[in-house]
Amino acid sequence: MRGAVMHGPGEVRVEDREAPQIVEPTDAIIRVSAACVCGSDLWPYRGIGVEDSMWPMPMGHEYAGIVEEVGDAVTTVKPGQFVVGSFWASDNTCPVCRSGYQSACVDRVPMGALGAQADLLRVPLADGTLVATPDMPSDDLIPSLVAASDVLGTGWFGAVAADAGPGKTVAVVGDGAVGLLAVLAAKQLGAERIIAMSRHESRQRLAREFGATEIVAVRGDAGVAAIKEMTDGLGAHSVVEAVGTQESMNQALHAARPGGHVGFVGVAHGVAIDGMDLFWSLAHVHGGPAPVRHFLPELIDLIWTRQIDPGKVFDLQLPLDQAADGYRAMDQRDAIKALLLP
Which of 167, 240, 258, 292 could bridge to 153 as Cys pair (CB 3.0-4.6 Å)? Predict the structure, then answer.
């Protein structure tokens, strides 16, 4: 089969890989209908957080497709069904999963290590990881269903962790796909005001389409000052951090009002929170790798009934063979998110 493999910083190739087989009776094999490039894929693409011994690496952890084969122990999905899965495989039965944190499942498997940017994908722990759609989706729903696999679920978790809801003012730090979908989530959760922080017109436009009521086009200390000015000097009730840098974390924490909530879902690189900053902020700070599986049934229903259209974050659609162009476009911020069609 074909699959995207990163051989070093900036070097992505689509090449022949061995087709996956059932390894454990809890596995499923799916034919990937669509995959995509994630903002977190850009960290290794830029040579950040990887060691030489890690190359080459299969790429991709966001996926949706049709079940081709299941192991003997799989009972909840069957061949021929269209399914969506999380970027972490989870058993969905351990105590951590049952508390709603499937991304920290005691048996979790990182799907990125298996490489979803490919024709076929082995999904471990299929019963706890995959959720079938009510029927075979129309082509126009597939981008949104792929978004549910990570960026929508991650943006949703960011908004939930930030306690977004009715009567709340929500600020979103980051205008990538996750940040934009955190705006969508905050809108669905009933937030009264949603402030999207973005300096790019196309992303500002999509943020407004997803529900942003206001835009702040500056960042850092100036961004914090703008949020404070818009909230009578208090700060936002809820702040979603969707970048993963020191500046974005500082901005999120400082933009929250005392007693407010910060939901951080950006993959952190070189980020440290000053203890005294945290102490005096009186903020609730919660986040990490999103337990997408926890939200998948609800998100699939919202997509299926066309109440939300998160697939709009894909502003570049490419055949799988051109995956390298998708990485390049996102790295240069020429695209918000690239959809890959095998």
Answer: 292
Could you give the CA distance from residue 66 to residue 78 in angstroms, rounded to a whole number?
9
Q: Which residues contact 82 (CB under 8 A, 6 or more apart)?
A: 33, 64, 65, 66, 67, 132, 133, 135, 136, 137, 145
Domain count, the chain: 2
Q: Which domain holds residue 98?
A: 2-150+291-341
CATH number of the domain to which 68 belongs: 3.90.180.10
Task: Give the contacts of 195 (CB within 8 A, at least 6 positions apart).
Answer: 169, 170, 171, 172, 212, 213, 214, 215, 216, 227, 230, 236
- Record the pTM: 0.96
Using the 3D structure, point to which of 258, 287, 316 is the last residue of a domain.
Answer: 287
Q: Cα dist. 242→21, 82, 276 in Å?
A: 35, 29, 23
pLDDT tens track for 253-275: 999 999 999 999 999 888 999 99
**% of the chain residues with pLDDT over 90:** 97
Same domain, 93 and 227: no
pLDDT band at 213 (very low <50, low <70, confident <90, very high): very high
Element (H, E) at 282: none
Q: Are 88 and 108 in contact (CB under 8 A)?
A: yes
Rounded Cα distance between 323 and 45, Å, is: 12
- In this structure, the answer to whether residues 277 and 319 fall within a common structural domain is no
| DSSP, res 26 | T
